[in-house]
């Protein structure tokens, strides 16, 4: 048995190896060896933290050398000595990311700073096979910060083969992944394939399904159908050959049934029957995406201020879909101003609905700048002023989604369809 002084002498020798000893070691050919995990961890930390002070850096280096000396003296070094490991920033930079792009990645997903470089490299290589560029990946991380934390390798070859058949080309697949990176995350056999087959069974052609996938990226995660939803679709009276059919089916599929019921009930408060509401959904499926609050505000303005019958909404859904503050109210008030000034052309009758559908430039060209300069300047000034009259965010939050907050306006004379 070794005595205590002998043990102390050996320990002191191990922890006081001079730098000249290491210089002697480095000049002697030594088989490359795998450094123990502790040394690798210390080296990784030293490489990734650029802000560390010189004193701390020296301390870490001394610790690493001491551990290496201990392993060498004990004869535990093997032939797989590796160089100091790099960090994730180096991997991104070598892959083609600029410093600004790397900074954006770390802002959106701070965990990438400490991610395993080898794992990041393998995932980037897979994404590179799909044609994704550094800017594409920045967009993906912006949308899904933990994207590179998911197991995208799982069933990768089978998934890509299915998507190439579905989208028809690698470029179309690349664009779809940038817009909806969940395509590489959702389970292929339990979520993606069943949804594709479901819409095909409902009569939505594959090319229409792909266009709707771009329009509503949440198709795979939110689609669900039951008997009641299918009955709603049937009662709209929309034919499978109609251009609106794909929009109706997909929007109905990703909408919660409870939400759809609430939206139907909200429109019924304004005097529509359930059949009329469903007919409206078939004519303009986008109405299904409108919030209850927006429908209430637009309907109140249409009935109480514009004095139009409720039935006008059925033939002109633009009255519901148009922005109240930016389009419906300013253009209606400008129509009154033009009538008051007695200039032509005026915005009356069916022309009002056409004016609401126009782009801003076309609307101004047809009804404002077409007049002599002094008239057009007055109309433009008035139009800018009324567009600036927006309700405050505080007022908008006071509206309840459960009851119509404009009951007094609904009782105005001339509104006969209120139950």
Structure write-up:
The chain has 26 helices and no strands. It is an all-alpha fold. Helix 3 (37-48) runs antiparallel to helix 4, helix 5 packs parallel to helix 7 and helix 6 (99-108) packs parallel to helix 8 (134-143). The termini are far apart.
Major beta-sheet overview: none
Query: Using only CA atoms, what is the Rg?
Result: 34 Å
What's the SSE pattern?
HHHHHHHHHHHHHHHHHHHHHHHHHH
Mean pLDDT: 78
Give the tally of β-strands. Answer: 0
Which percent range describes the beta-strand content? under 5%
Shape annotation: globular
Q: How much helix is in the residues?
A: 55-70%
Intertermini distance: 101 Å
Structural class: mainly alpha
> Treating each run of at least 4 consecutive H or I residues as one helix, how many helices?
26
| Low-confidence region ranges | 1-85, 390-419
For the structure shown, list the relevant keywords.
26 helices, single chain, mainly alpha, globular, 419 residues, disordered C terminus
């Amino acid at each position: 048995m070794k005595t205590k002084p002998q043990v102390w002498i050996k320990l002191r020798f191990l922890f006081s190896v001079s730098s000249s000893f290491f210089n002697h070691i480095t000049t002697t050919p030594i088989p490359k060896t795998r450094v123990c995990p502790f040394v690798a961890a210390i080296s990784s930390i030293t490489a990734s933290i650029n802000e560390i002070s010189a004193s701390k850096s020296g301390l870490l280096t001394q610790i690493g050398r001491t551990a290496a000396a201990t392993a060498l003296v004990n004869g535990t070094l093997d032939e797989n000595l590796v160089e100091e490991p790099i960090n994730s920033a180096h991997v991104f930079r070598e892959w083609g990311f600029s410093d600004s792009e790397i900074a954006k990645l770390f802002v959106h997903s701070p965990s990438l700073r400490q991610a395993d470089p080898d794992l990041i490299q393998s995932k980037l290589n897979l994404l590179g096979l799909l044609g994704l560029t550094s800017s594409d990946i920045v967009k993906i991380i912006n949308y899904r910060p933990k994207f590179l934390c998911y197991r995208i390798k799982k069933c990768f070859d089978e998934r890509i083969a299915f998507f190439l058949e579905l989208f028809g080309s690698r470029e179309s697949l690349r664009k779809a992944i940038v817009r909806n990176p969940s395509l590489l995350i959702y389970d292929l056999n339990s979520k993606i394939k069943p949804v594709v087959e479901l819409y095909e069974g409902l009569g939505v052609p594959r090319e229409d399904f792909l266009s709707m996938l771009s329009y509503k990226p949440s198709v795979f995660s939110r689609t669900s159908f039951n008997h009641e939803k299918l009955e709603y679709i049937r009662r709209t009276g929309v034919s499978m050959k109609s251009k609106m059919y794909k929009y109706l089916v997909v929007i109905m599929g990703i909408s919660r049934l409870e939400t759809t019921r609430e939206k139907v009930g909200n429109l019924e408060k304004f005097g529509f029957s359930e059949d009329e509401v469903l007919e409206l959904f078939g004519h303009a499926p986008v109405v299904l995406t409108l919030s209850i609050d927006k429908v209430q505000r637009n309907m109140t303005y249409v009935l109480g201020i514009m004095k139009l019958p409720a039935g006008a909404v059925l033939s002109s859904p633009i009255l519901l879909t148009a922005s109240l503050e930016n389009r419906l109210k300013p253009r209606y008030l400008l129509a009154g101003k033009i009538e008051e000034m007695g200039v032509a052309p005026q915005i009356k009758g069916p022309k009002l609905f056409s004016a609401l559908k126009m782009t801003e430039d076309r609307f101004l060209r047809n009804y404002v700048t077409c007049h002599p300069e002094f008239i057009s300047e007055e109309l433009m000034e008035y139009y800018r002023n009324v567009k600036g009259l927006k309700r405050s965010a505080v007022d908008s939050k006071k509206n309840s989604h459960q009851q119509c907050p404009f009951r007094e306006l609904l009782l105005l004379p001339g509104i006969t369809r209120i139950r």
